[in-house]
Design brief:
Radius of gyration: 24 Å
Number of domains: 1
CATH class: Mainly Alpha
CATH architecture: Up-down Bundle
Shape: globular
Keywords: Cell membrane, Electron transport, Heme, Iron, Membrane, Metal-binding, Oxidoreductase, Translocase, Transmembrane, Transmembrane helix, Transport
Enzyme class: translocase
Distance between the termini: 14 Å
Strand order of the largest sheet: 1-2
Oligomer: single chain
Helix content: over 70%
EC number: 7.2.1.3
CATH topology: Four Helix Bundle (Hemerythrin (Met), subunit A)
Subcellular location: Apical cell membrane
Pfam families: Cytochrom_B561
Number of strands: 2
Length: 228
């Protein structure tokens, strides 16, 4: 969950993906999140089955409480992401209003997952290391403590990348993707070839072209920062 979710978060932030279609990047972002969700569900089923087979109580530790909370909110985040940002039915004002919530809730869930992993490995060490005990700092304890530090550093780097404005997907690239088929930066092909139409027709077409460009800019603002 940590590795796949982090990949889904920064998929828009990688410069070599900025030349790709925005729709393609949306599908990659949604696909990575779906894979992470499936793996999280499989792991939770395995944990409950293991506890039941060994007669270990379920959901008694803070690790389990926060972990289950993270999975529940992650499933809601994934569902709303599909419904609002991937499917083409949600209106632009709704996307624009929900985008900040979508971004920061995704980063919060990622930070919660990191915290859950840290509590989990600490809990495992305390229960597993008996001779020598965890307090004696055996090699296993040192190794897992270093792993925990690497998880913290990794989480900080992902959050830093996701919060830097210069790592955002450039809006001009999105504008090209979102521009209607056949439209050029100076206007539509239809407008440029209308040499025998009336002045009123030309004016109407220019107004329509300007409205389309404004609509594209709204779509770009609503979708350029998605991290799910």
């Amino acid at each position: 969950l940590v590795s796949v979710l982090s990949s889904a978060i920064i998929v828009y932030r990688l410069p070599w993906t900025w030349k790709c279609s925005k729709l393609l990047m949306k599908f990659i972002h949604a696909g990575l999140n779906t894979i992470a969700m499936i793996l999280a569900i499989v792991s939770m089923v395995a944990v409950f089955e293991f506890h039941n087979a060994r007669n270990i109580p379920n959901m008694y530790s803070l690790h389990s409480w926060i972990g289950l909370t993270a999975v529940i909110f992650y499933s809601l985040q994934l569902f709303l992401g599909f419904a609002v940002f991937l499917l083409p039915f949600a209106p632009v004002p709704l996307r624009a209003a929900l985008m900040p919530i979508h971004v920061y809730s995704g980063l919060t869930i990622f930070a919660t997952v990191i915290a859950t992993a840290l509590m989990g490995i600490t809990e495992k060490l305390i229960f597993s290391l008996k001779t020598p005990a965890y307090s004696a700092s055996p090699p296993e304890a040192t190794f897992v403590n270093c792993l925990g530090l690497l998880l913290v550093i990794f989480g900080v780097l992902i959050l830093w990348m996701a919060s830097r404005s210069h790592w955002k997907r450039p809006p001009e690239e999105n504008a090209k993707v979102l521009r209607p088929i056949g439209e050029t930066p100076e206007g539509t092909e239809a407008e440029s070839t209308m040499t025998d139409g009336s002045n009123a027709d030309r004016s109407d077409l220019r107004i329509n072209s300007e409205a389309a460009r404004k609509q594209n800019l709204k779509l770009d603002e609503a979708g350029q920062r998605s991290t799910m």
